[in-house]
Specification:
Blueprint: E1 8-11, H1 17-28, E2 32-37, H2 40-50, E3 57-61, H3 67-81, E4 86-89, H4 104-132, E5 135-140, H5 153-173, E6 178-185, H6 206-217, E7 227-230
Parallel strand pairs: 1-2, 1-4, 2-3, 4-5, 5-6, 6-7
Bound molecules: 1,4-dihydronicotinamide adenine dinucleotide and butane-2,3-dione.
Residues 94, 142-144, 186-187, 192-193, 238 line the site of butane-2,3-dione.
Length: 238
């Protein structure tokens, strides 16, 4: 099994939802944490929560649509910890609308955060992982990258694109001892999905996604789970 203790993780969109749970679960394993997000106060609250673990924590204000922000976030993480072992491309947005009501701007916004963000983060981080001959990339896609639904064409397009990007990176990078994990959750109980009509207890919670990711990262590094699909037991419309 892989020991995560003393590794360094950079988690995008780490101040709430699935990203915060991944950060907390990694911190519980002894992983030093850098989180990014757009809102300084939200990041500060997350740092307070993460500081209860016996690890170092840093937070960086970084808009995933801004390449310079991303370069600065990666540079800050490397200055602070001198390495990045795990990059979690988690930050994402979803806008639901019927196809004919979806504007070019809606599609561009989702492509900017959900595809170009991970693209730039991986371009910044991978040279360091190649040099250190080790690394793990976790790309947070979605079941919407497997089956599009009505009102999710643009979001699905962005997640299909992320899945393709991730799969290509995986094929190039595994020769460098870099594992690329492509995660496909179905609906998870976070702010992203808006109003919930199901019994919350029957839905997947952010900590469930974090547990799956941590268990995958702990597999002996000669092996990795290329992609997964994480479903709730309770049937949903998704
Ligand atoms: N909640 C769900 O049902 C599912 C979520 N996902 C994916 O999981 C990831 C996390 O989503 P949730 O935790 O559910 O949502 P959330 O809305 O609770 O959290 C999203 C995070 O991304 C950050 N973010 C958004 N735009 C950003 C930007 N421009 N720059 C920097 N950070 C930005 C937010 O600040 C927040 O921290 C997303 O990529 C989402 O597409 C995938 C499948 C299901
Ligand atoms: C929000 C999302 O990505 C779903 C429901 O697959």
């Amino acid at each position: 099994m892989e020991n995560l203790h003393n590794k360094v993780a950079l988690i995008t969109g780490g101040s709430r939802g699935i990203g915060l749970q991944i950060a907390k679960h990694l911190a519980a394993e002894g992983v030093h944490i850098a989180i990014t997000g757009r809102n300084f106060n939200h990041l500060e609250d997350a740092v307070d929560e993460l500081s209860t673990f016996d690890v170092e924590v840093t937070a960086i204000v970084c808009d995933s649509v801004n390449k310079e922000d991303i370069q600065a976030a990666v540079a800050h993480t490397l200055e602070t910890f001198e390495r990045i072992d795990i990059l979690v491309n988690n930050a994402g947005i979803m806008h639901n609308s019927s196809f004919l009501d979806t504007t070019e701007e809606d599609l561009m916004n989702m492509m900017a955060v959900n595809v170009f963000g991970p693209f730039h983060f991986m371009q910044e981080v991978l040279p360091h992982m190649i040099a250190q001959k080790s690394g793990d990339i976790v790309n947070m896609s979605s079941m919407s990258a497997v089956n599009a639904g009505p009102t999710s064409s643009a979001y699905s397009a962005s997640k299909f694109a992320l899945s393709g990007l991730s799969d290509g990176v995986m094929r190039e990078m595994r020769q460098h001892n870099i594992r690329t994990f492509l995660i496909h959750p179905s609906a998870v109980l976070t702010d992203l999905i808006g109003e919930v009509t199901l019994d919350p207890e029957t839905m997947t919670h952010p900590e469930d996604i974090a547990e799956v990711i941590i268990s995958q990262l702990k597999i002996n590094r000669r092996t990795f789970v290329r992609t997964n699909q994480i479903w709730a037991t309770n049937p949903t419309k998704l």
